[in-house]
Amino acid sequence: MTWEAFSTTVLPLLGVLLGTGGTLLGQYLATRVDNKRLELDQLTTMRAERKAAILSFLDAAQRIELILDSRSVSKNQSDEIAAHENLHKLWLAKKSVELVCSSELAQCAHNYTQVLHVTLRDSDRILDSDTRRQSRYSMMESARKDLGITGNPLTRDSSPGQLSND
Question: Which of 85, 109, 112, 135 has the fewest CB atoms nearer than 10 Å to its CB?
Fold first, then answer.
């Protein structure tokens, strides 16, 4: 076979093979980048859902804490109706945490909700503020982990003479 015949048949085939290989490699790299972007978008969306559920739960829990704190000042019928409504909202918010967050955080939210419920409803089993504070602390640290916040746990100093409104 002469060089002229070789170059007219083999070189175009070689060009087609190189072009196909380049196209396939380009598509592979583009697909890989798209998959990573999609995965990042899913993680961002999941984090936003978790954050919304956690904030909803904390809002409901804070309302119960406010009722418990104000009970020492006065106790009337309208406060009891508000307490019942807010307790219902707390349990509902806890369920949203269970749906979108880790099992560890869901358990901490349940424990905290249970402590608030018992403190609010069962006057025979009044739990001390340290129990409430500890269950709140566990909930917050677990929420930080779920949201991907790294580092040392927050310290919550409640020394005498210092306000501790966590």
Answer: 85
